[in-house]
């Protein structure tokens, strides 16, 4: 399956913040969006999630316009994890996760045992089992982020759209989250992920797209796109990108900002 953005324009009002975005994400591929704050990464992901109407162009999955897929089908195709999820109601973590499966429930009914099992399995995948009975309003921001990732996994969608999923995760959870994404990608899921961590793109992405000045500037293999020069042009500070000596099949690259 292929998620296809064709000359997509998106934004929060009538004025687009991004225009002319051409990008594809295949099943089994992780595409990272890099770009400075305000470059429209969230607007793009919200447009895919159906929370913002496209202001031009088209989104297609397997050649069919996104808007033409029935709502229940769409939930099985794409799961969205927002940047920060402010808790409103004091649901248990397990309940928040099972809500990711509303499209799988039989019409006019609640979750079935199969849905609860899927929710437990998703919590287990992100090692949040111990939090299942905790209240979503009474866990840390990072734990909420992991819960939202579990909810997206419980949805069992073919594509994941993730908005800075590492933003409030500690070092260990960042690594666990990347590991989980790698496994999902290997299983054929397509992932589009906005991130502020070029190193995450270097470790996990099949391709990287750089957004700046209302456009998708460049897209390509991480080693070609995440260079000191491109990071400097995106973030406007000098960087060093260096390879670590290691015995892994793929060299590990680190990115460090140069300070005075
Ligand atoms: P990013 O995720 O790359 O930081 P955003 O999509 O959040 O980019 O923001 C793109 C632009 O849209 C920015 O100029 C930002 O100020 C503006 N913006 C963000 N949220 C809203 C909103 N709710 N209403 C209007 N403009 C917004």
For the structure shown, list the relevant keywords.
globular; Rossmann fold; alpha/beta; 260 residues; binds adenosine-5'-diphosphate; six-stranded mixed β-sheet; four-stranded antiparallel β-sheet; single chain
Itemize the secondary structure elements and their pairings:
Elements: E1 2-10, E2 18-26, E3 30-34, H1 41-48, E4 56-61, E5 64-65, H2 71-77, E6 78-81, H3 93-98, H4 113-125, H5 141-155, E7 159-163, H6 171-186, E8 190-194, H7 198-204, E9 207-212, E10 215-220, H8 222-225, H9 228-235, E11 239-244, E12 252-257
Parallel strand pairs: 3-8, 3-9, 6-7, 7-8
Antiparallel strand pairs: 1-2, 1-4, 4-5, 9-10, 11-12
Helix pairs in contact: 4-5
The structure holds adenosine-5'-diphosphate.
Name of the level-1 CATH class: Alpha Beta
- Bound chemical compounds: adenosine-5'-diphosphate
Shape: globular
Task: Please give the CATH architecture.
Answer: 3-Layer(aba) Sandwich
Largest sheet: 6 strands, mixed
Topology-level CATH name = Rossmann fold
């Amino acid at each position: 399956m292929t998620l296809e953005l064709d000359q997509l324009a998106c934004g929060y009002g009538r004025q687009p913040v991004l225009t002319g975005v051409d990008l594809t994400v295949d099943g089994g591929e992780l595409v990272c969006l890099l770009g400075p704050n305000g470059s429209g990464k969230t607007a793009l992901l919200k447009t895919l999630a159906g929370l913002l109407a496209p202001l031009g162009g088209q989104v297609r999955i397997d050649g069919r316009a996104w808007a033409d897929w029935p709502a229940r089908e769409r939930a099985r195709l794409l799961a969205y994890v927002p940047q920060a999820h402010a808790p409103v109601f004091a649901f248990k973590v397990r309940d928040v996760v099972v809500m990711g499966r509303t499209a799988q429930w039989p019409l006019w009914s609640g979750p079935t045992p199969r849905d609860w099992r899927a929710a437990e399995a998703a919590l287990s995948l992100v090692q949040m089992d111990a939090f299942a009975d905790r209240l979503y309003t009474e866990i840390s921001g990072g734990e909420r982020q992991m819960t939202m990732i579990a909810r997206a996994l419980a949805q069992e969608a073919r594509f994941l759209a993730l908005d800075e999923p590492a933003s409030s995760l500690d070092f260990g959870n960042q690594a666990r989250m990347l590991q989980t994404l790698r496994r999902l990608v290997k299983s054929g899921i397509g992932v589009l992920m906005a991130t502020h961590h070029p190193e995450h793109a270097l470790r996990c992405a099949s391709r990287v797209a750089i957004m700046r000045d209302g456009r998708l500037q460049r897209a390509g293999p991480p080693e070609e796109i995440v260079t000191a020069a491109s990071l400097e042009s995106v973030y406007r500070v000098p960087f060093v990108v260096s390879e670590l000596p290691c015995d892994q099949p793929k060299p590990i690259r680190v990115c460090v900002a140069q300070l005075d």
